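Shape matters. Shown next:

___
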Amino acid sequence: MARILSIDYGKKRTGLAVTDPEQIIANRLTTIATHTIWDFLTEYFSKEKVEAVVVGYPKQMNNQASESVRFINPFLKKFQQKYPEIKLEIYDERFTSKMAFQTMIDGGLKKQKRRDKALIDAISATIILQNYLEQKRNLLR
């Protein structure tokens, strides 16, 4: 089986997470500067077989797309052009940053480490991917 990659795309930083080859569990991969995303993806796809990419898509409480999508939509369009063979899915990412922060607290991370926005972005990507996997499993039941 191939992996599933998750992207928490941001204006400055982008968090990434990936499944194991059996697509059972999501693991934090890294956080990169957003302007390096294309180089990162090209290199990653040359080394790993990826079946799908899940991109966090921010929505407001009324289910409308948030203001951030003006940065994400051009990325999604370019991704589909560059990698048409890879399935691209968007996933509602509401509250993932708050969940990531709470995960850090629950994990006992010190206050200084919890201020690391790059870590929050990578954990958010992991939460997006884990939720996506759980939803996918529930649909198969």
Notes: Helices lie at 37-47, 69-82, 96-106, 111-114, 117-140. The chain has one domain: 3-140. Residues 117-140 form the longest helix (24 residues).
